[in-house]
Each structure stands twice: as C-alpha cells, then as structure tokens.
Amino acid sequence: GVKIDNLFTELLEITLTAKYTSLEDKISFLNTISRKLDNLKFFTTLLWEAKGINAGNYGKLAQKLFHAGTMLGGWIKQQTLPQK
Question: Which of 7, 45, 73, 83 is 20–30 Å from 53 (CA)?
C-alpha cells in the first residue's frame, strides 16, 4: 500500500513539473511518468490479487488509471509531432 501511495505522489509531482518544463526536457519527464504509471498499474493489480482491495474498487481505479494512460499517450504524441 505504501508503494502505491508513493507512486501516486511521485506521479503528481513529476506531472506538475512536466507541465512547466521546456519542450526539450518535457519528453523525458513524460517518459518517466509513463513508466511510473505502468508501475502503479502493476502494483494495484498485485494488491487486488492479494485481496488487499475489493474487485469493485479495483475496477474503478483500473478504469481511471487506463484513462490517465490514454491522456498521457495523447500528451506524448502532441509533444512529438512536428510543431507548426
């Protein structure tokens, strides 16, 4: 549980930093966010499998994490497209 809490906090911190970072450095931050989000998904699944969270709460959380990943993918794609 503590690992999951720490990952949530780190994700928030890095995301806030990425928002205000120059374009040259932003991709590196976004890749870090992506890795941490994948870790968070893994550890929440592990928590559910260990019966540390019920299926309903896990389903809600998994859906939100999936949505966050979709939004992050869009952000990464936006940053890597040629600027007009």
Answer: 73
Rounded Cα–Cα distance for residues 11 and 18 (Å)? 10
Residue 71: CB partners within 8 Å, gap ≥ 6? Answer: none
Q: Rounded CA gap, 22 and 39, in Å? A: 25
**CB atoms < 10 A from the CB of 26, how many?**
19
What CA–CA distance (Å, rounded) separates 81 from 84? 9
Q: Nearest to residue 10, comparing CAs of 40, 43, 31?
A: 40
